[in-house]
Amino acid sequence: MAETSLCPACAAENPANHAFCGQCGARLDTRTLTAADVRQQVEEQLDRLLTDRDVVEYMIAEAAAERVMGWAKLFAFFVGVILTILITIVGWLSFDVKQRLKEQSKRLAEQSNKLMHNDQTLKNNANSIDEMTKTLNKAQPQLENVQNTASNIRDQYAALARDIGPLQAAQRTATLALQQAEQNNATLQRLTNRVTDIETSAITCGKEAREKKAASDKEAAGITRGAHATTITALRALAEPTNSLRSPRIAPFETQVWSLDATLTSYKHEADGDYHLVLQDDHDYTIVAEIPDPRCAGESRFLDAITSARETFEAQLPSTRTFRTVAIPVHLEGIGFFDQPRGQRGMAPNGAELHPVLAITLK
User: Fold this and answer.
1) SS3 53
2) Spatial distance between the Cα atoms of 324 and 319, rounded to a whole number of angstroms
3) CB neighbours (10 Å) of residue 330?
4) Residue 52: count of CB within 10 angstroms of its CB
5) Do the bridges between strand 257-269 and strand 275-280 make them parallel or antiparallel, or are there none, so unpaired?
6) What whole-number distance in Å separates Cα of residue 32 and Cα of residue 288?
7) Helix, strand, or coil (residue 20)
8) Low-confidence ranges of the chain (pLDDT < 70)
9) CA 336, CA 238: separation in Å to the nearest integer?
10) Among 31, 69, 247, 294, which residue's CB has the most CB atoms within a 10 Å radius?
11) 135: helix, coil or strand?
């Protein structure tokens, strides 16, 4: 086997007689080396090569890794920021779109409700129109009747217009007659008033118990003014006196003022100037009350009361020379008096009456 030598640079085997390595071109050590020398050289060479290359490669790899990690972190940071911004924008847009969609949905719901309401209104209007149409169809014959009636009325009016001339003449005649009648009534009223004035001025006061009837007698001074309530039945139940017109006042009836409620059924303005009143109760019993003419009671201590009662009566009822029938509730006050019954209208059987009347209220 031929001897060889190892290249101190690349450890390649070379023929022992070569001065340079056939692999790397390094100069070969021509001295004779033992196997242990060669092994030592190879190990040293390998350690050096491994150390230099690994360190360099490791350093390069570490630097590259650090550079890559830095760029990766920076990239991740920017990517995160961009993603965060995008997510925020997308979220805001989604919220805004959601709100708009809610509002749009609400408006659509309102419009839908309005449309439904309008649709119902249209249906109701349509039903109303149908009902009105039916009503008009039913009323059509009536309208035709009304038109025919109107036509007849126009014809009648035209006929009346032709006859209006004679009617106007008759109306003028009636108007003149009415005016003449009013003039005649005015003349009659003046004559009636004149007759009344003559009768009044020519009045003759009664002579029979005149002072007692007008409460101008001496005993009238003892009559108390306070009125005592009574009834027609109670007055008719009094004992009838004898010769009452010429006797002194009979107590207590003729010495007190009495009040009662009754119904005035008739009255008359008598020739002696008194108003003769017929009073009736619920049992159809009657008595008489009389209001003297104040001119015939000039000396009476009750003249003011007599005058007031007379004025109250004449202000509400007209004077009449014949009995006038009425039905008027009254309240009156008067002095008791026993008259002589001679068939006077409404006279109580015992002749009890209120004479003179001092106050009267026609209800």
Assistant:
1) helix
2) 9
3) 19
4) 10
5) antiparallel
6) 198
7) strand
8) 1-2, 29-39, 41-43, 45-58, 161, 189-203
9) 11
10) 294
11) helix
Could you tell me the domains of the chain?
A: 210-362 (2.40.50.140)
The pLDDT value recorded for residue 227 is: 94
Instruction: State if pTM tops 0.90.
Output: no
Peptide bond into 356 cis (omega under 30): yes
What pLDDT score does 257 carry? 97
Two structure tokens written together for 292: 């003297």
Rounded CA separation 305/237 (Å): 28
CB 309 within 8 A of CB 257: no
Amino acid at 276: H
Q: pLDDT at position 235, please?
A: 97
Place of tokens 């009449």: 320
Q: Residue 70, Cβ neighbours under 10 Å: how many? A: 10
26-62 pLDDT, tens digit each: 787 655 555 566 567 666 766 665 555 666 666 777 7
- Strand pairing class (257-269; 227-229): parallel
